[in-house]
Write a structure and sequence with these properties.
Layout: H1 2-5, E1 9-14, E2 24-25, E3 33-34, H2 36-52, E4 57-62, H3 68-74, E5 79-80, H4 88-91, E6 95-96, E7 101-110, E8 127-130, H5 134-141, E9 147-150, H6 155-161, E10 167-171, H7 172-178, E11 185-197, E12 200-201, H8 206-222, H9 224-231, H10 248-255, H11 280-283, H12 292-326, H13 329-344, H14 347-357, H15 367-392, H16 396-404, H17 409-439, H18 451-462, H19 465-494
Parallel strand pairs: 1-4, 1-5, 8-9, 8-10
Antiparallel strand pairs: 2-3, 6-12, 7-10, 7-11
């Protein structure tokens, strides 16, 4: 615990695309993060400051939902606070604090749906849910074969409206804000399959977990947790289950219940309550131009990654091509293995291995450096083949003329052969450069915020998929189209035919 909080910062990881009410971008001020877990993290930091007698602040680390567990193990943040369900499978891999919210599963259908009255009626039908969630596990146990998993919690409801799935099963907090305000959707049956959200830690962080448990208990006793839940429309009678001995009575009272777990008639009401259509009600009237600065900043990251990665690829690719053409037999074999290996493995797999896999052996690199190295190594295999074919296209008589002039092999290659080959390689290399602009979208899996990731975060927070999509596409075109003109200008200047 000393190591995690010595700097006075509690680093908590979450999915910025998690959406309302967990953590999401403010639709009116997209540079600001909102959500009940954002407020909970700040409240916990205040309580930890009192417990540890020095100031603690909560700092958010955005991460892909599917990579949260690996990011925690790698040490990119101290805890996971992102609607993370406490399940037996996860408890075998990590430590959890006491629960801070009791959720249930809720089935949602279209308003005119008449076939579905409960989960049993969904057999043989397509049911959407969030990939890797407890809801997906409930569908699996119920024998729902046609499970359609999504990476975000917005998409299942959009697909339901379009009729591409027949129902959606998700946690009650999500349904509260995405389904109940939607006049085209309705809930079916009572909530069921209750579970709990907890704060996940590494197994060795027992002391930090104990402090967080104490801080959560204090928030319950003081009524602050009830205020946060009430503000975000999440308080209900299920939350009485959060109280634990030996201070269960005090915690129940702070949560708004009597000792028997019944709601207090005079319990304090939240000082403010967010609108149920906080996102959906604003999406139609928000101007997407307020999002342009954030997208432009992310585009700068994309340009940086692309330029540096392509520089690595061109340099390494030239070395590999020369080794394959002119090196001794063992070196030629190694160069061939390099080309076939990196052309044969998926780029996403390579990024995962470099960032998460090597960390298990003590080799930890920053995410941006990992992205540059991964893209550079991968694209170097393609650039090596472009170089090789371009070099081989130079007529053999050019070598003969260079030798006749008394040039060494190295001098002839540098002054005569390579300049001609480079002119031939310019076109294919430009194509790879443009392709690399788009492939940088893969780096979101290792917590790098580039243009496509920024678009997804903003679009899911504002529901402006079309407007922001057009702006994002325009930015990609502004970055890639000039490369074509630059390539043709360089070819003409170099005298390429």
């Amino acid at each position: 615990m000393r190591q995690q909080l010595a700097s006075g910062v509690l680093h908590w990881g979450g999915d910025e695309e998690g959406g309302i009410p967990f953590q999401f971008r403010d639709p009116e001020h997209p540079e600001r993060l909102l959500g009940f877990e954002v407020e909970l993290a700040d409240a916990l930091a205040r309580e930890l400051s009192v417990l540890l007698k020095h100031k603690i602040v909560a700092q958010f680390t955005p991460y892909e939902w599917v990579s949260l567990a690996t990011g925690l193990a790698r040490g990119d943040f101290d805890v996971i606070l992102s609607g993370y369900e406490i399940t037996p499978e996860r408890q075998q891999q990590m430590r959890f604090t006491r629960p801070y919210y009791i959720y249930a599963q809720q089935l949602v259908v279209r308003r005119d749906e008449t076939r579905i009255r409960g989960l049993a009626d969904c057999r043989g039908l397509a049911v959407g849910t969030l990939s890797g969630s407890a809801a997906e596990r409930v569908l699996e146990i119920a024998g729902i074969v046609q499970r359609v998993g999504f990476d975000g919690q917005v998409e299942p409801f959009l697909e339901l409206e379009l009729g591409r799935v027949d129902a959606v099963l998700l946690d009650t907090p999500i349904v509260t804000f995405y389904a109940e305000p939607n006049p085209r959707l309705r809930t079916v049956g009572a909530p069921f399959a209750h579970g709990a959200y907890g704060i996940a830690l590494r197994p060795a962080d027992a002391a930090l977990a104990a402090c967080l448990d104490e801080a959560l208990g204090r928030l319950m006793e003081k009524g602050e947790l009830a205020q946060i839940l009430g503000k975000w429309r999440l308080w209900n009678t299920d939350q009485a289950r959060l109280a634990r001995p030996p201070r269960a009575a005090a915690e129940l009272a702070g949560l708004g219940f009597d000792p028997q777990g019944r709601p207090l008639p005079d319990r304090p009401q939240p000082r403010e309550v967010v609108a149920p259509d906080l996102v959906t009600g604003r999406a139609a009237r928000l101007s997407f131009w307020r999002y342009a600065p954030l997208l432009l900043r992310a585009a700068g990251v994309t340009v940086l990654l692309t330029v540096l990665s392509m520089g690595v690829a061109m340099a390494v690719g030239l070395v590999v091509a020369v080794a394959r053409l002119y090196g001794p037999r063992p070196l030629r074999a190694l160069a061939l293995v390099y080309v076939e290996f990196f052309r044969g493995i998926p780029l996403l797999l390579l990024l995962f291995f470099l960032y998460f896999g090597l960390a298990q052996f003590g080799v930890e690199m920053p995410a941006v450096l990992t992205a540059i190295l991964g893209f550079g190594l991968n694209y170097a295999a393609y650039e090596a083949e472009i170089y090789r074919s371009a070099i081989l296209s130079v007529p053999a008589r050019q070598w003969e003329a260079a030798r006749a002039l008394g040039m060494t092999e190295a001098l002839a290659f540098r002054r005569i052969i390579f300049p001609q080959a480079f002119r031939t390689a310019l076109g294919p290399m430009t194509n790879d450069f443009v392709a690399l602009f788009k492939d940088t979208s893969l780096v979101s899996v290792i917590a790098v915020r580039e243009l496509t990731k920024e678009y997804l975060v903003l679009a899911r927070s504002s529901l402006q998929f079309v407007e922001l999509g057009l702006l994002t596409a325009a930015l990609y075109l502004l970055m890639s189209v000039p490369l074509g003109y630059l390539s043709r200008w360089l070819e003409q200047r170099a005298g390429a035919r």
